[in-house]
Design a protein that fits this description.
six-stranded mixed sheet, 31 helices, Barwin-like endoglucanases, 759 residues, binds iron/sulfur cluster
């Protein structure tokens, strides 16, 4: 019945396995969408809510950061967007009675799925030191408790202010302002764990840490390479864009260790033809070995250099730097070793080359499959080398396209949520607000965990998210979190991070994207920035889930007034009353937001400037687009071991578990499964359906074990396995991170599979 959470905690993982699917969406997606929506919201609310998602006068989907097309469909959402909305607009409630019925210790035994299914938080809740239960607390008292702990710190740098990518631009801008006025740059955010490698590589090579293509460019491209990404589950409306690009003549190369239904065929539910027959998407599937992407692009670059007339000499000589050194290193690449690193055949590389040479407008799209490896930054630099060689930057239908995760993760970074802020941003902040912001770099996610582990950080404040489940090395992270004096989570729903607490803890319930945000000056809009740098408004329409909720922005304003007191000359009260006043300040501090309020009033919003795309101007250290020369790296695999990538199921968005099925991969009612190539399984003596423990091996010699996984013989690349996070985050060592970006290397974990006691 709508509004009633599932009874009992189905932690009994009993996966049923059938063969993987070969098409995404279609009628089944409509069925699943309506079933989940009805279960959470009931019929009337489902209609009211889903018809407003991603509409010009509606609210932005709290799911991923895929952009809106100019012309919106009546139903402008995907199955997973509907699940994200349904979980936020659910009629289920987590009230003080719920907390009275469940100790924190009990909540810590519950699955992430069960916790998330309980519904929306209704009251600020406080866990006093030594208490077993959270108890209701007033907002004033809650801010007092935070102020007590913050002002008791020996230094502002003992506080951590984490941001999850769902936070609006307005709240993010004020949050970083508060943290800096308090005196720290400790602003770790979820980008640190996902596209930080993209930001690092792109800032160095083209001068802007963001993608250079707009949605229209995808429709104009004649070759789209989708590498290390599973759009069918993680950015489903991207499939509509790929279908349209194909209809316009584009060809698609998919690079992935796993065959994914969404990249094989897309059954677009928006058209009868699409719904039943669908459109084949991938023209060439390169089943790469995990971590073999740098090697692949190095080989393509080597062959382009060896092909007469294939290099765009005019572009290279006018707009780039470092070509000779790069070309020398690419030509010197050892063919056999580099090919081995890819796990592909010469014939496959040659076929890819033919498609590349036939293309005049090439886009490369990528996600975590490229960003979460030790060598991710050199890999993404090699992708840029590949595009620069043929002038595919700053040309319509061509460019770099890192596809972001959370709906406003890119916006938060643009607003200043960054532990390594640019001096120019701090200068602008100082000019605008008249205080001297800290200049010393702060902690990113991995360094923040180390700081809590080593008692260098004592207060952890999270604006959204589920930090302990999203982070690597679960046992280390949870132990570190429990060493804190105070943990505070601004959340819409219950999650595991609420059960892994400091000595004192607060859970502060906030408005969701779907809900009306009423402040002193009336109804407020918030703004977000999508994966392609488009900024637009979002207006919630539903009545808040509880009268006790505060918006993220109001929480920051009241906290800042309580903690900073009269010392602060920042007009926090004015900001809380009218978000337009926040946007006026953003317009003066953040480049590209001039006239912010006027421009965001345009229903479609506006595109932020991107010098490489708009003018082929590259604001890098050399003033040119930089070719880079780096040795090819790839994960080495000891005998009898497999390379594991952690990934999402189709019923999951980051750490939010919508259900226990992974429909496209043929898995039902279970999450503790490991996908293993049948030949690897035979060599390792692992029968399909048997149970195994996953044990990761890393240079620190620590044994990290994830027990009781059902072996699923699956067409992965040889030597490569896959399993879901957060269940397998325990296997990812805290210090196993990408060079330069420090992003956890969650996509290439060396594991051994041991017969499990469960057999
Ligand atoms: S593609 Fe992403 S933004 Fe669009 S509806 Fe789906 S989850 Fe939401």
């Amino acid at each position: 019945m709508a509004g009633k959470p599932p009874q009992g905690d189905p932690v009994q993982d009993a996966p049923q396995v059938a063969g993987p699917k070969h098409a995404a969406a279609g009628l089944p997606a409509i069925g699943h969408t309506l079933r989940v929506a009805q279960q959470q919201m009931g019929v009337r609310r489902t209609a009211l809510t889903l018809l407003r998602v991603n509409q010009k006068d509606g609210f932005d989907c709290p799911g991923c950061a895929w952009p809106e097309p100019e012309h919106r469909h009546k139903a402008e959402f995907c199955e997973n967007g509907a699940k994200a909305v349904a979980e936020e607009a659910t009629l289920r409630r987590v009230t003080p009675d719920f907390f009275a019925a469940h100790t924190v210790a009990d909540l810590a035994t519950r699955s992430g799925y069960w916790l998330g299914q309980q519904g929306r938080l209704t009251h600020p809740m406080y866990l006093a030191e030594g208490a077993e239960h959270y108890a209701p607390v007033s907002w004033e008292r809650a801010f007092d408790i935070i102020a007590e702990e913050l002002t008791a710190l020996g230094s502002p740098d003992e506080a951590l202010f984490y941001t999850s990518g769902r936070t609006s631009n307005e709240a993010a801008f004020l949050y970083q302002l508060f943290a800096r006025e308090f005196g720290t740059n400790n602003l770790p955010d979820c980008s640190n764990m996902c596209h930080e490698s993209s930001g690092s590589a792109l800032s160095e090579t083209i001068g802007v840490g963001k993608g250079s293509v707009l949605l229209e460019d995808l429709y104009k491209a004649d070759l789209i390479i989708v590498a290390g990404q599973n759009p069918g589950t993680n950015h489903p409306r991207m499939l509509s864009a790929l279908e349209k690009a194909k209809a316009n003549g584009a060809r698609i190369i998919t690079v992935n260790p796993l065959p994914e239904a969404g990249m094989e065929r897309f059954k677009n539910p928006q058209t009868p033809q699409g719904m039943f027959k669908g459109a084949a998407l991938t023209d060439l599937f390169l089943q790469i070995r995990i971590g073999g992407d740098q090697a692949l692009f190095r080989l393509l670059n080597k062959l382009i250099l060896e092909t007469e007339g294939a290099v765009d000499e005019a572009f290279v000589s006018e707009h780039t730097h470092g070509y000779e050194e790069f070309a020398q290193s690419a030509r010197a690449a050892d063919w056999d070793e580099t090919l081995t690193a890819t796990g592909l055949t010469r014939a496959q590389i040659d076929e890819a080359l033919r498609m590349v040479l036939a293309s005049k407008r090439t886009i490369v799209c990528w996600a975590m499959g490229l960003t979460q490896h030790k060598h991710s930054v050199p890999t993404i630099r090699e992708v840029v080398n590949f595009l620069l060689l043929r002038g595919n930057i700053g040309r319509p239908g061509a460019g770099v396209c890192p596809v972001r995760g959370h709906s406003n993760v890119q916006g938060d970074r643009t607003m200043g949520i960054f532990e390594r802020p640019a001096p120019a941003f701090l200068d602008a902040l100082e000019r605008e607000f008249g205080f001297a912001p800290p200049r010393e770099h702060g902690y990113d996610v991995v360094r923040a965990i180390r700081a809590m582990r080593d008692d260098k950080a004592k207060v952890f404040f999270a604006m959204g998210g589920n930090f302990v489940s999203a982070s690597p090395d679960t046992e280390v992270t949870e132990a570190a979190m429990r060493r804190a004096r105070l943990t505070v989570h601004v959340s819409t729903k219950l999650n595991r991070s609420h059960a892994v607490t400091g000595a004192r803890a607060l859970v502060l319930p906030t408005l969701g994207r779907t809900e009306r945000d009423l402040q002193g000056s009336g109804e407020q809009i918030v703004t977000v920035e999508d994966s392609m740098g488009m900024v637009h408004a979002s207006r919630g329409r539903l009545e808040p889930a509880s009268e006790h909720l505060l918006s993220e922005t109001a929480i920051v304003c009241r906290l800042a007034r309580r903690v900073l007191g009269d010392e602060s000359r920042t007009p926090w009260e004015e900001f809380e009353k009218d978000y337009a006043t926040i946007r006026d300040r953003i317009a003066r501090v953040v480049p590209g937001f001039e006239d912010f309020n006027a421009r965001v009033a345009d229903p479609g919003g506006f595109a932020l400037p991107h010098a490489p795309r708009d003018e082929r101007r590259f604001p890098t250290a050399t003033g040119k687009a930089n070719f880079t020369a780096a040795p090819v790296e790839y994960p080495k695999l000891p005998e009898g071991r497999l390379l594991l990538q952690t990934l999402r199921s189709h019923d999951q968005y980051n750490t939010t578990i919508y259900g226990l099925d992974d429909r496209y991969r043929g898995i039902k009612n279970g999450r503790r499964v490991v996908l293993v190539n049948p030949d690897d399984a035979r060599e390792l003596g692992l029968a399909d359906g048997s149970y195994t423990d996953l044990v990761s091996e890393w240079q620190d010699g620590v044994e990290r074990r994830a027990p009781g996984f059902r072996v699923v013989h699956y067409p992965t690349a040889r030597g490569c396995a896959a399993a879901y996070y957060p269940e397998t985050n325990v296997l990812v060592p805290l210090d196993a991170t990408a060079d330069t970006s420090n992003t956890p290397a969650s996509k290439s974990v060396v594991v051994r599979l041991e017969q499990s006691a469960a057999n």
